[in-house]
Design goal:
Elements lengths: L1 E8 L3 E2 L3 H13 L16 E2 L11 E2 L5 E6 L3 H14 L1 E4 L2 E11 L7 E4 L6 E3 L14 E3 L6 H23 L17 E13 L3 E10 L7 H9 L5 H4 L4 E3 L2
Antiparallel strand pairs: 1-5, 1-7, 2-4, 3-5, 6-7, 8-12, 8-13, 9-10, 11-12
């Protein structure tokens, strides 16, 4: 499930500060609830978009202009807790900045996840153990994927990360999280085809991210894993900075 929050800034707000404050807004909403554990967990099960529409050439949110923010999670109750807190406060506080809430709307997860596009960059770090396999020359303990490295290195890391997060989610549903999804063995071939768009440097401080379009294999377009990834994002740092937030291509 997602919530669409329409807001108006009370003053100009730099875009580069907003992501960490959105994360903190979500954490403060779920504090002292049954989801409080998520703050310290290795895997978080939510993601969020940038404020949109936005203009990179301006690089700030304009005063008194309406913007949209999407917050998503496969856990409906978590989304409803965040929504309730937002309605109660009537404002979003990003550090010293405030945005007036104009409207809030729930958006259900689509029944079919077929063609998707990244709205924020996917962050994937390639570990040392893959260096030899993909002929990666580096003395660092991890590298960010670029289009100069074999595409298979990106796919392998992306799928393994997705399966670990999904498996953690299913495990935790047995300890209090209500899941609407059926438990299935996560597939390794969920992505049928993909199109690289561009590299985004310096995303989330020093992390490098990449933008993509994906087509989900027909067999898995209605699967619980596809729905999970649609609501929790692809790659790493989904909850930290909204990395890997995806939308359907209509």
């Amino acid at each position: 499930m997602r919530i669409l929050i329409k807001v108006k800034p009370s003053q100009e707000i730099p875009l580069n500060i907003s992501r960490s404050y959105i994360r903190n807004l979500i954490y403060s909403s779920i504090k002292n609830t049954e989801f409080d554990w998520m703050h310290e967990s290795k895997y978080k099960h939510f993601c969020f978009s940038n404020f949109f529409p936005f203009d990179d050439s301006i690089n700030y949110l304009e005063n008194n202009r309406t913007y949209n923010l999407l917050i998503s999670s496969p856990i409906e109750k978590l989304i409803k807790i965040v929504a309730k807190k937002t309605i109660e406060l009537d404002i979003l506080t990003l550090g010293k900045y405030t945005l007036r809430v104009q409207e809030l709307k729930y958006i259900k997860t689509p029944y079919i996840i077929d063609k998707v596009i990244t709205a924020t960059p996917i962050v994937i770090r390639l570990p040392e153990k893959l260096y030899k396999k993909y002929d990666i020359k580096s003395k660092r303990n991890c590298e960010f994927w670029t289009n100069e490295i074999f595409l298979n290195a990106f796919i392998e890391s992306l799928i393994k990360n997705s399966i670990k997060r999904y498996s953690h989610y299913l495990l935790n549903t047995k300890f209090g999280i209500k899941s609407n999804y059926n438990e299935e063995k996560p597939p390794l071939n969920i992505i049928r085809s993909m199109k690289f768009k561009k590299i985004v440097f310096g995303w989330d401080k020093h992390f490098r991210g990449t933008m993509w379009e994906f087509i989900i294999d027909r067999k898995w377009q209605k699967s619980s894993l596809a729905k999970y990834l649609y609501e929790s994002g692809l790659g790493e740092r989904n909850a930290s900075s909204g990395s890997g937030f995806i939308n359907l291509i209509k």
